[in-house]
Design brief:
heterodimer; A: 256 residues; 12 helices; globular; B: 320 residues; alpha/beta; Rossmann fold; Alpha-Beta Plaits; 2 domains; four-stranded antiparallel β-sheet; 28% strand
Chain lengths: 256, 320
């Protein structure tokens, strides 16, 4: 990645974040969602049969990384939504005529969705620590970095989907919703796939998200040693590369 | 500044090929103010989108601000400004923030961007709106912000796509004041599309008429009107016999013209009606013919379009 892409990504990210920073209320609002998850899942988790075996000690250790991946997934997969609006008003076209690097437009927009996740993650961790969650700062840091990498890939794919959808918002929503939930469930993000039928486990094996989720669990448990982190990192980087290639190609093809 | 050869663009629409732009050749020199005039769907915006790297040509070449749009689109983008048909500012952004962001997009430092942003806010009367969110602005205010955004990096060449579409007359006049001032102060080359006849006529120096993807006329509004439409001189006389005599008088005059006699009225289509009319009246007087009324109508660009295509630009516009 050249210096220009890094610099341009910063410009895009700063522009995307500014409306939220100008309006602190919207930031506070973004913290409600994780609280709802914790408040509603928490009571279920403590007595859920079959969850006793996962993770060491508290089920939160197993569950929190899954929640973070899910939050990242749902926010970055909607990053194309803003683009749909901007494409209709003309502000996307205005950005396309500037010398901004095309990859930077994709990365900056995806990171804008990830940035609030950092705050959300800290809040979640702070809240579950009294319930026996053990916090490994280095693991969490690397975990969030991997999540951002995955988010760049997903955000770029969402961006590409928005370009293809153009004025057909239903296509964007339909495709996103249709893909999101199967991917989410078949990665063992919220419920372990070990309890599911063989075919689900088989599909889970080829879902790149499964590896990211397992990698995140290892990292948030402070376990750098196993293969889970390596596979998770490989899956996250592969998603980022695929997303950026598909995203920049789609942008170019839109002008062809 | 702009050199186009054989520029062509096809679209596939429902399995059929639409030839939006069919082999355009044109040159625009530095400092010119030119307008692309034509009805909706004539290929104006498609051409502009190719020149601003938003669309790849199907064939042909275009050199814009010294760079080839296909070989080096990034450098073209760096050198030009473009104010599109839509509103460039993001709805959730604040006015001043968008101007600063735009400067940053063109590689200006933060401090430089801020200075430029403040300068433009002042010169485009946007200062009181600096902290407003874009979605709360009126149409005219948004258009002014669009212009400001397009100027932050001080491009030597500025493209404007239907800059005054949807603006009321006051805002349109206001917009033109800014465009003309920009040109005067910075010598910016300006290339715009419009389907407003009066705008192309009174504001720009050179008009290129485009229809069905082809350039059908190119010149100053004066030239186009004189060469393609001409002025209409109408003189009425007391009797029909006098009108026929007047036609003979007209035929002896040097200026080339078309003559039509209808009852006691004679009509002359000439290049310079302002010169021909007094001359014609003197000749009639000398021949002992008394003119009762005399009228001179200067042509509009719509007459030019009509002469070229057989259609009125106003009509073809209202159809679409």
């Amino acid at each position: 990645m050249s210096m220009k892409v890094v610099g341009d990504t910063g410009i895009v990210l700063a522009r995307e974040l500014r409306p939220a920073l100008r309006d602190p209320f919207s930031l506070a609002f973004s913290l409600i969602q994780p609280l709802v998850f914790l408040g509603l899942f928490g009571p279920l988790l403590s007595d859920m049969p079959g969850l006793e075996g996962v993770g060491d000690g508290t089920p939160w250790q197993w569950f929190v990384p899954g929640i973070l991946v899910m939050l990242g997934l749902s926010s970055t997969s909607m990053s194309g939504y803003n683009l749909l609006i901007e494409a209709q008003t003309g502000s996307h076209e205005r950005m396309l005529v500037t010398p901004l690097s095309r990859s930077a437009m994709l990365i900056g927009r995806a990171l804008k969705e990830i940035a609030p996740l950092l705050v959300q993650a800290l809040l979640i961790i702070a809240l579950v620590m009294p319930f026996g969650f053990r916090f490994y700062p280095l693991g969490a840091l690397v975990g969030m970095f991997l999540l951002a990498t995955l988010g760049v890939g997903l955000g770029a794919l969402s961006y590409a989907l928005a370009i293809v959808s153009k004025d057909r918002e239903w296509l964007f929503y339909g495709a996103t919703q249709t893909l999101l939930f199967p991917l989410l469930i078949l990665s063992g993000m919220l419920l372990p796939l070990d309890m599911g039928p063989a075919w689900m486990r088989a599909v889970g094996q080829v879902n790149p998200l499964t590896y990211v989720v397992e990698g995140e669990r290892a990292l948030f448990a402070g376990d750098f040693g196993g293969s889970a982190v390596l596979y998770g990192a490989m899956a996250a980087f592969a998603m980022a590369v695929v997303g950026l290639v598909v995203g920049t190609r789609t942008m170019r093809r839109a002008a062809a | 500044m702009i050199h186009i050869r054989g520029l062509t663009r096809h679209f596939r629409v429902k399995g059929e090929t639409v030839e939006a732009v069919r082999g355009i050749d044109l040159d625009v020199e530095e400092g010119e103010l030119v307008a692309f005039l034509g009805p909706n769907g004539a290929g104006k915006s498609t051409t502009l989108r190719m020149l601003t790297t938003l669309l790849r040509p199907t064939s042909g070449t275009a050199t814009v601000a010294g760079c080839d749009v296909l070989a080096d689109p990034a450098e073209v983008r760096r050198r030009i400004g473009h104010i599109g048909q839509g509103n460039g500012a993001g709805h959730t952004q604040r006015v001043r923030d968008e101007l600063v962001s735009q400067g940053r997009c063109y590689g200006l430092s933060r401090a430089q961007s801020r200075v430029r942003a403040d300068g433009l806010l002042a010169s485009l009367d946007l200062e009181p709106l600096a902290k407003r969110t874009v979605s709360t602005l009126s149409g005219g205010q948004r258009r002014r912000l669009d212009i400001a955004i397009g100027l932050v990096h001080r491009p030597r060449l500025l493209f404007l796509d239907e800059p005054s579409a949807g603006l009321d007359p006051q805002n349109r006049a206001n917009l033109w004041e800014h465009i003309l001032r920009l040109r005067k102060e910075h010598g910016t080359t300006i290339f715009l599309t419009t389907h407003y006849l009066e705008e192309a006529d009174t504001m720009t120096e050179r008009v290129m008429v485009i229809d069905h993807g082809t350039l059908i006329a190119d010149g100053t509004a004066q030239q186009l009107k004189a060469n393609l439409a001409g002025d209409l001189v109408t003189v009425t006389l007391g009797e029909e016999a006098e009108a026929r005599q007047a036609a003979e008088v007209a035929d002896r005059m040097t200026a080339s013209h078309e003559t039509g006699v209808e009852g006691t009225t004679i009509r002359l289509r000439v290049a310079r009606g302002d010169e021909v009319l007094p001359e014609f009246l003197r000749a009639l007087e000398a021949a002992g013919i008394k003119a009762l009324t005399a009228d001179l109508r200067r042509p509009t660009l719509d007459d030019v379009f009509l002469a070229l295509t057989g259609r009125s630009l106003r009509e073809s516009d209202s159809v679409e």
